[in-house]
């Protein structure tokens, strides 16, 4: 970037005076910023003026990609979606055989050559900033945009051939409907979503992805294709496609050479069938990748080495409980122990080494019946998918009492709360004291993107986390960039990081449980014996700049 050409651009156009320019150059050196960045941050020029000046300094033509800009569909259609996403470029105009394309580096001859090969047209490259290109590519070439176009095409096909479809159970398995569904699923996989929600309304079909625990709205689809999509999904999931009733099933979807297990739940509503598709992880994670603090991981591994007893992962839905237990099973497989899992349904298939059983009362395969057989199968480790009712709690505890190491999940807010919940399910205090080995509470706050910014905690957060002046001064605190970046798609966060609260059961706590004392006293004893609370573990992650205090606050209860 030529500083001389930049000064000529701004001064000759009357945007800046020579004195202001000279002062900005000197100050930018002091603060260690690019002079254009300094001018924009100081509000001496606009971002558009900075972009135009940068292009002028390089001898390029600047083509702004305003958010209000609408590029005709016939221009956008000249390039394939994956190509535009990979190279971050957008065609903006066509004049005869010449196509004007906005790119980050108009001097890149390789890009020009690839574009000529892809379009068969003469190429005129113009400059646009990375932020502008990111927005435009997302608008016109993201999976969301592709899904919208596929949905519109499917809508036209369905409406033009509506006489062919005589009932809701008849599948519109035209290429357009199949393409629309595949794009919706693959869009979710591409952005790392955990769930897809298809929610019919009076006049449209809402499509939302759950990304890092937050719902992200995708382009709405036509109401007319909702029944066809529902019928196609139910058929793929081996459900009764003609029945308007709540159903559960699973889909196997292959994308980019990988197989994904997708759990499907269908619920009838006033406007049609609401469908949730939960995207299973591709592979079981290694225990070292769970995100434990070093001391917490060491204590959890010690628990796994116990010959019997019960260990629980607790927290709300979507907090990573099953991921933790699956990683633990993979670790136990190394010890050549016979492992059996009872789940409803099995969430991820191990290729070998574990006997996995999917509970299905409709086929007379119940928790109680399966457990009786398991206890006679010489298994040493048992995974019980979820303790959600008294009979499951009792069978799990009985297995722990008869020499099995039992892993399971439970819905409680914190680790000490698991003791109260099991008491409520009818487990005697003396039995709990004898069988409990550990309870690990977990949450999954979002991870700050690399574009994070320094952000002082609010007064409310200071009160909530009990921060004093010394603690505030000793750490640099960060928050999400409100504008985000290309990496985080403008959200300020990218991915999630776990926080943990691991409670073990030494003699002091076992004695308190036997005495049936209030939960508060058990929690105090757990902290004396090494338990770090969710709030404390989250505070460590915030101090390290991994996540923000506000994000931690949104995941935990603070009295």
Automatic annotation (TrEMBL):
GO terms for cellular component: plasma membrane. Coiled coil: none annotated. Pfam families: MshEN (PF05157), T2SSE (PF00437). GO terms for molecular function: ATP binding; ATP hydrolysis activity. Residues 172-552 form the Bacterial type II secretion system protein E domain. Keywords: ATP-binding, Nucleotide-binding. Residues 67-145 form the Type II secretion system protein GspE N-terminal domain. Belongs to the GSP E family. This is GspE/PulE family protein. The lineage of its organism: Bacteria, Bacillati, Actinomycetota, Actinomycetes, Micrococcales.
